[in-house]
Structure formats: structure tokens, C-alpha cells
Amino acid sequence: MDAFGPLLDILTTPYLMGLILLAIPIGMFFGAVPGLGGKLGIVLLIPFVFGMDPLAGAVFLLAMHAVVHTGGSIPSILFGVPGTGPDAATIVDGFPMAQRGEAGRALGASLGASGIGGVIGALFLAAMLPVLRPVVLAFSPAEFFLLALFGITFIAMLSGRSLIKGIAVGFLGILVSLVGLDPHTGSQRYTFDQLWLWDGVSVVVAVLGMFAIPEMLALGVKGGSISKVEGKAHRYDFGQVMQGIWDVIRHPWLTFRTSVIGAAIGAIPGLGGDAASWLCYGHAVQTCKNPENFGKGDVRGVIAPETANNSKEGGSLLPTLFFGVPGSSGMAILIGAFVMLGIQPGPHMALTGMDLVWSLIWALALANLLSIPLFLGMAPAFSLLVYVRGALLIPFVIVLAFLGSFLSEQHWQNMALLVGIGVLGYFLKKFGWPRPPFVIGLVLGAIAEDSIHKALAIWGPTFFLRPLSLVFIALIVLTIGAYIWKQMKGQVADVHYDT
Amino acid sequence: MILNARFLTTLVMFALFVGACILALSLPTKAAFMPLLIGVPGALLCGAQLILDLRRGPDAPKEPVEEAGDASAQSEAQAFVWLALFSVALIGFGFVYGGPIIVGLFVRFSSRDSWKNAGIAAAGTFIVLWGIFIWLLELSLFEGLILGALTG
Predict the structure, then answer these.
(1) Domain segments of chain B: what residues?
(2) One digit per residue, pLDDT tens: chain A, 499 residues?
(3) Cβ of B5 under 8 Å from any chain A Cβ?
(4) CA pseudo-torsion sign A408, A414, A418, A419
(5) How far is residue A153's CA from residue A472's CA, in Å, rounded to a whole number?
(6) Do the interacting molecules here have an ipTM over 0.85?
(7) Contacts of A167 in chain B (CB under 8 A)
């Protein structure tokens, strides 16, 4: 009953169901317009959820984020342009299908796979809860401090070419989190006698500054439409779409396997959607009959990455909710929004926040399920979104970013801070300093400081000799070692984690 | 000496960490502990990056921010000027008045759209700001420093 009570609450509350139904087309919009994506979607919706009930706001944002990749498959299949980074794998077989007149079938397969994958991802999260709870509760303050360092190191390694830059940006995030009154001595830290800084730098302002402003500046410099789409969309009919959905049902084991793999990859912080979709595509090629058909318009090549894209969101919620370590860059921003809503992710969720966790799991599953009929009705309209001119989006996004930063704490000074962080964020983006570690540092900074003070008080300077602490130290060393090894072998590749 | 934007970005990062460490020295020991624990390695990492940037020289790899040469593309300087104008409009004249005006001006002059489209964009912005945030959500939006001073 503990698990199904929140589901009943959502289903019987028209307000929550209405928010989910509203979030789905918004999420698909951000997925279908190449270059926008779920991260920007959350950033832009922050002003709208301000003042909402925490559960309603969280359900709305998560439902929106859950279906971004469902919409992202539309330009991938119809134009050969990925709506979001992880949708790139869908092009390999989806676009050739469209070129030979099977666009509707590819869209149907993508839709069915996304919906089922998202539901399986949510169930994966639910199945992991009994295992995760004792693990989380076994962590002491020493482990939480080291977990914060490990989270930053791991994501820094995966999110850019330079580990040095990644860790430095993560540390900058921690430094920014230290602004305000010191909780132990009450002394002012980096406040410069400004009253509005006594409570610290708002996570929302930092996230908007680090992501929304740099993206809009870059879009302004780039100019033109967001994507470089040429030509018209391929035509399709409803019967083809239903055939595509049937294709997913005809390949139940492939759908199930790639969903579970996607969810498991999502649970590893930093690996992100690109890894999930490409690994699942590779898995399909390796395990399916007639692998020579892949790349030439095989429907299985659409099913595998699309299930993974949506199922990974369920997996990503695991580290995000219980450790405060975001499973993806989208989750990093979602954490910022959760904090603004009054939800502090962390180990206490396993003790006092299980109702909320279950609500989020069901919201994830419902959003994916409900996206199927909504998609069927709206896909033709969404296919036109690739022609949206970026220049027309810039002013609205900037106004909403300013609005979000003001509403977060009702201080006008936050708007000036937004501009400062935005300019810094632009140059960090331009010169390859990965920005997701900044958010992680910002969110985990307070937890890390509190944890290290507690650990030192309990065990003294030898706190890191505890067995579980040694495991984390070994993981940090291994992460850095793996990076150096990859550097020496020249295998450090660009990833889409920060784009 | 390569004093380009790449090097300056690293230098700013280095300065942020060094500045944080210097300021932390004037704090009580317990309050200074975490800033120093993070600030010192941060400064060292940025110092190492500075050395790497110096050694790399001017032949840096292609920058991730793409610059296209079509009609609506702005130079970086123009983009920053527009950001400054948005700041002045929104901080000076608030959201309800400053927002629609600056959006309309941007659409007209930066996007080089018609006055009609600029008017539609401005009206749309006003409707969203006033209609959703003030009327529907009953939020109080910032009225602007200049406008606030003028209206008392």
C-alpha cells in the first residue's frame, strides 16, 4: 500500500493529473526543437513552478523531463537531425526508414519503445528501492564527504576533455555554496556585508546563470535556426504509426533488455543518455538476427536506443534522489529546481521522503504512458518545430531566466548575479570547461561541509580509514587513473553531457 | 604571452580560487576550514591549467561555441551588449514594462524582423508576464529600480 498510495493520490487528484498532461506536450516541444532539450526546459519552467506545492512542482518538472526524448525522435526520424544528443542513435536506422517511405512506422516504433522504456525505467527504480535503502543508511558523514568528492571527480571525467577543468569547476560550485553565514560560527563568509547574500547564493540563480544565459548567448552568436534543417519532412499516415507500435510488441525481449540496460546506465552518475542509447544500439546489433540490416533502416535499430533514452531517466533518479549526486546533467538542474521547491535530495529521503519518491516514480511511469496518445495527435505539428528560428526564442528565454532568478528569493540583486554567472558560464562553455560539475558542487557543498565537520568530530583526521571511506578513496583514485590512462591512449572523446 | 580569451578565462578561475583563499584567512578557523580545503586545490588546478594554456599557445582547438555567418548572427560583443540592455531594462523598469519593451526591440533590431512582429512579440511577453504571473499565479513581480523611484 505504501507504494500504491501515491499512485492513487495522483490518479484521483485532477490537479496533479492536469499538470502531468500539461507537462507532456511541453517536454515533447523541448525535445522536438533541436538544440533545446530537457535541461533548458527545466530551467525555463522554474519561474512557473515557483510557489507551487513541492509535490506538484516536482511531478510537473519530472513529467516534462521524462518525455523530452520521446519528442526528440521526431526530427531524428523525419529530418535526420537529432532533437537532443541521445537521439542521435535513432537516426542511424530511423532516417533511412523515413527515406524509403516508412517514416510513420519508425515514429510508431520510437513512440512505443519510448513509452514502454520509460515505464520499465520507473519500475527499475521501484525495484531498486529495497536494495538501496540499507546501502544509503549505512553511509556515515565520512562517506558522504567522500561521495561528494567522488561525484565531482566522476562527472568531471565524463563530461569533458579535461579532468582538471572539470574538477576545478566542481570545486568552484562548492565554493559558491559556502557563501553566506557559516552554520558553525555564524560568521559571514564571502557576503561582502550584503544582506541578500546571508542565506547564500540561490541554486536557481546559479543554474539559470550557468546554463540558460550561456546557451542564449551562444545561440545569438551562432544565429539562424537552431538546427540546420534542409528540405521537408517525410510524409506518413496513422496506419504506419500503429504498425511501428506493433513492431515494439513483436520484439518484447529486445525492448525489455534495452530498457533494463538503459536504466542501469542511467543509475551510474555521469554516463548520460548518449552512452545509454549507443550502448543499447550496439547491444541490439550484437544480439539480434540479421545484424547486416542495421544501419539500413531496421526497426530494431529504432527500438533499442529509444527504449534506453527513456528508461535511463528512471535509473538517473536513483543517485539523484538518494545521494544528491545527479545521474545526468538534466538531473543536476532538476536537483536545483527540487531545492527551490523545498525538496532536498539526500539520504534522508530513504527515511522520510519515500512517499515523494513513490509519487515521482509513478509520475515518471504515467508521463511515459500518457505520452503515447498525446504524441499520436501532436506529432505532425511537432515536426514543424525544427524550423523555429533561434533568434525568436532568445529574448523570451532571457526574460524568463531573469524572472526565475528574481522569484527564487525576491531579491533584485539576484538578477545582477545571474548576469555575472551567465557571462562566466558562457566563457566556460566556449573554452571547454564542463558546467554540470558546478551544479553538483553547488548542491553537495553544504552536505560535504557538514559531513566533514561531523566526521572530524567523531573520528578525527583518521576518518578516511573507515572501510567504506577507503572504497570511495579507491574509486576516486581509479577514476583519475582511468582518465590518465585514456589520455595516454588518446581515447578521451567529446561527449554531449555538457551540450 | 598569450593574453587571449581562453587564457583570461583560466586566469579568472584562478583569481576566484586565490581570492577565496585570501578572504578565508580572515575568517574563524572553523569557518575557514572548508573554503581552504577546496580553495587551495582549486587554485592549484587552475594554476596547472594556466601553465597548460601557456604551453598550448595560440593554436588552440576549435571552440565549442559555433559562429555562423548568416544574417541574424551577432558578434560576441553584440550579444553581450544585448545582455546588458536586457539587464538595464529589467532591473531598471521591471518585468511588466521593461520586459515587453526590450523583447520588442530585440525582435526588431537584432532579429531584423518587422515592427509588426516586434509588436506581437512584445504583446505576447506582456500577456505572459501579466496574465500568467500576476493575474493567474498572483505573484508580485519586480517593478524596477528606476520606475520604482519615479512612482515612489
Answers:
(1) 5-56, 76-151
(2) 477 888 888 999 999 999 999 999 888 888 877 666 777 788 778 888 877 889 999 999 999 988 888 888 887 887 777 766 677 788 888 888 887 788 888 888 988 998 898 889 888 888 888 887 777 777 788 888 888 788 777 767 666 668 889 889 989 999 999 999 988 888 899 999 899 899 889 888 888 888 888 888 888 887 655 444 555 555 667 788 888 889 999 999 999 999 999 888 888 766 666 678 888 888 888 888 888 888 888 899 999 999 988 888 888 888 888 877 777 767 877 887 888 888 888 777 877 788 888 899 899 889 988 988 887 777 666 666 656 666 677 898 899 889 888 988 889 999 999 999 999 999 998 998 988 788 778 877 888 888 889 888 888 888 888 888 888 889 888 888 887 887 777 655 444 444 3
(3) yes
(4) positive
(5) 11
(6) yes
(7) 45
The one-letter amino acid code at B30 reads: K
Contact A171, A154 (CB under 8 A): no
Give A-chain residues touching B118 at CB under 8 angstroms. none
The answer to whether the CB of A201 falls within 8 A of the CB of A424 is no
| Nearest Cα residue in chain A from B15 | A172
Helix and strand element counts for chain A (H, E): 22, 2
Task: Estimate the share of chain B in helix, then strand, then coil, as percent rounded to the nearest 5.
Answer: 75, 0, 25
**How far is B96 from chain A, CA to nearest CA, in Å?**
11
Kindly report the nearest CA distance between residue B150 and chain A, in angstroms.
17
Q: Going by DSSP bridges, is the β-strand pair A180-181/A188-189 parallel, antiparallel, or unpaired?
A: antiparallel
User: Cα dist. A311→A294, A333, B28, B115 in Å?
Assistant: 22, 19, 48, 46
Select the residue of B9, B12, B74 nearest A220 (Cβ to Cβ).
B74
Question: Rounded CA gap, A283 and A254, in Å?
Answer: 9
Model pTM? 0.78
CB-nearest to B107 from A168, A185, A392 is: A392
| Amino acid at the residue A354 | M
Residue pointed to by grid coordinates 569533458: A160
Q: Are B6 and B58 in contact (CB under 8 A)?
A: no
Rounded Cα distance between B12 and A487, Å, is: 26
Cross-chain Cβ contact B72/A224 below 8 Å: yes
Q: What's the DSSP call for residue A411?
A: -
- Which residues in chain A are contacts of B12 at CB distance < 8 A? 424, 427
Chain-centroid distance, C-alpha A270: 10
- Read off the amino acid at residue A67: V
CA geometry: angle A358, A361, A364, nearest 5 deg: 150
How far is it, in rounded angstroms, from Cα B78 to Cα B92? 20
What is the length of chain A?
499
The CB density around residue A259, as the number of other CB atoms within 10 Å, is 30
State whether A220 and B79 contact (CB < 8 Å): yes
